[in-house]
From TrEMBL:
Domain spans labelled 4Fe-4S ferredoxin-type: 5-35
Protein name per Swiss-Prot or TrEMBL: 4Fe-4S binding domain-containing protein
Main location: other
Annotated signal sequence range: none
Length: 112
């Protein structure tokens, strides 16, 4: 089966709210401590005077199926629909890959 859909994450805009995690857990009835998407936090630390590193990156896990039953009904995956910062996008890999040049703090996940 060819991988042709994915999630593009613009982590420059992720606020670390965990809504993607909660939406996924609720959608799939996952147990506490299990995730279809998990928020990773990098930082905070100061690396130069008044310059700080802090980033949040939602990362799909092996339990992510891109909300296949939702997508079959024409809906977005639950994490994408509920992302308050609108930093998650779902769609064809070729289209999402073209958006990677928009700015550097993005990551593209190709998922089955």
């Amino acid at each position: 089966m060819a991988v042709n859909k994915g999630i593009l994450i613009d982590y420059d805009w992720c606020t670390g709210c965990h809504t993607c995690e909660v939406a996924c857990q609720m959608e799939h009835g996952l147990q506490v401590g299990q995730y279809g998407i998990k928020l990773a936090e990098l930082g905070p630390w100061e690396y130069a005077q008044d310059k700080w590193q802090i980033s949040y990156v939602p990362m799909p896990t092996d339990q992510c199926n891109l909300c296949a039953s939702r997508v079959e009904k024409g809906k977005q995956p639950s994490c994408v629909q509920h992302c308050q910062a609108k930093c998650l996008s779902y769609g064809p890999l070729e289209e999402l890959a073209k958006r990677l040049v928009d700015h550097p703090k993005q990551v593209l996940f190709a998922l089955k």
